[in-house]
Amino acid sequence: MAKIGDGIAILQGTTERPGEQPLRQANQFFYLSGVVEPRAILVIDGRSRKTTLFLQPYSERREKMMFGPGLSPGPDAARATGIDEVLPREQFKVTADSRRVFTPFRPEVLGEASSADPATLARNTKADPWDGRSSREEAFIAHIKEAAPEATIENLDPILDEMRGTKSPPEIAIIREATRITGLGIIEAMRDAKPGMYEYELQADAEFVFKKYGSYGPSYFALIGTGQNTWYSHYHRDIARNADGDLVQFDYAPDYKNYSSDVTRVFPANGKFTPKQREFHGIYLKLYQALMTSIEVHRKPSDVIQTAVKKMDAITGSYPFTDDHIKAAALQFVERYRSSRANSLGHTVGMEVHDVRNPTQTLEPGQIFTIEPAMQIPEEHVGIRLEDMLLITETGYENLSAFVPIEIADIEKMMAAHHGLSDALWKDAK
């Protein structure tokens, strides 16, 4: 309300699903309302400081025979949501006169996506000569202009993005739990892994954990690559079979209460790193930690990188390389950071796995992001990439995913302890 002044913010919720799919609310609408109902409309009036929610009418068949109780217009819904008034959707109308009307311009994000994804799809669809459809948001804006021709239509997204960039304590609590579930899923896959398993079997281990702890579904498609598939940053076919001696790169997280996480670990399919893998993982981890230990609150990411590069130079200068390909990969890794002009260390995480940008040029408390630098050996078509969830605090940062094994000794100990879900299921089946 402070941002829109005497203007009006109008948001439309998502539609019902086209099939037997659970309803997930669009992120911008959910952020302001917490309401998960199809075709809801939210109106926030900056002048009267009143919020009104418009819902579809009560349906006895829907509530008593099909889906169970939902929200219906009336005082009960107002009490349940904390919203001032909840009216039938048919009563919604735009009476803005010459006031400013704020509404999202960007296509909605419904999960397993980040804002750039549906925006790209909408742009490509509109430019397709055999399609040419406008987005649902563009159609809504056109209707507002027709209903209130004297009103000025402005984009609400930048306002909400700035708010979403700094996480509140309740949001941090949800993301912390999402990250705990993520880590447990990765640990389950580590415990279960063995040569001969398919990548999708390891995916199933994590998905069992995601659902066990109440996740809606995944935040993004499973990025689980073994052997030469570790080269790709977004490999997601998950159909290859782990071979003895392969490394597995595991990047997967749940969509929990409309919030995401994003953690990556690398582990040997057979539970034991080979000498070469120990060298590859070992130098990468030292360089990764050089970046981690350089992160400080109130600093620019570019300054953090400069500090980290000095540490990386010292590490590569003293590391006992035995493999020329690994050494070349490590030096190239450092050079990429040395020549970097990046204003970020990785990507933000929140309601979307690639969330809205941080609202400040410096790292400030309440911001959450990951780092995920990749080191690759072109001659062997393999790579390694780790990723952690970092919360900036008043005194520095907290690694929300620190409990997930990352050191070679800890990974091997975890994998040797006992087998995981698949073994137990097969034992029961037999």
Protein architecture, described:
The protein is built from 13 helices and 17 strands. It has 2 domains: 8-165, 3-Layer(aba) Sandwich (Creatine Amidinohydrolase, Chain A, domain 1), CATH 3.40.350.10; 169-429, Creatine Amidinohydrolase, CATH 3.90.230.10. It is of the alpha+beta class. It has a 6-stranded mixed beta sheet, with helices on both faces.
Structural class: alpha+beta
Enumerate the strands of the largest sheet in spatial order, edge to edge or round the barrel: 4-3-2-1-5-6
Fold-level CATH name of the largest domain: Creatine Amidinohydrolase
Run of helices and strands? EHEEHHEEHHEHHHEEEEEHHHEEEEEEHH
Biggest sheet layout: 6 strands, mixed
**Strand content range:** 15-25%
What is the correct CATH architecture of the largest domain?
Answer: Alpha-Beta Complex
Low-confidence stretches: none
CATH class of the largest domain: Alpha Beta
CATH superfamily of the largest domain: Creatinase/methionine aminopeptidase superfamily
Report Rg. 24 Å
Mass-distribution shape: globular
Number of helices: 13
| Overall domain count | 2
List keywords for this structure.
six-stranded mixed sheet, about 425 residues, four-stranded antiparallel sheet, Creatine Amidinohydrolase, Chain A, domain 1, globular, 2 domains, alpha+beta, Creatine Amidinohydrolase, 13 helices, single chain
Give the arrangement of secondary structure elements.
Layout: E1 8-12, H1 27-33, E2 41-45, E3 50-55, H2 60-66, H3 75-81, E4 85-88, E5 100-103, H4 116-127, H5 136-147, E6 152-155, H6 157-165, H7 169-192, H8 199-212, E7 217-218, E8 223-226, E9 247-251, E10 254-255, E11 264-268, H9 275-292, H10 301-318, H11 324-338, E12 347-348, E13 368-371, E14 374-377, E15 382-385, E16 388-392, E17 397-399, H12 408-417, H13 421-429
Parallel strand pairs: 1-5, 3-4, 5-6
Antiparallel strand pairs: 1-2, 2-3, 7-10, 8-9, 9-11, 12-13, 13-16, 14-15, 16-17
Helix pairs in contact: 7-8, 7-12, 9-10, 10-11
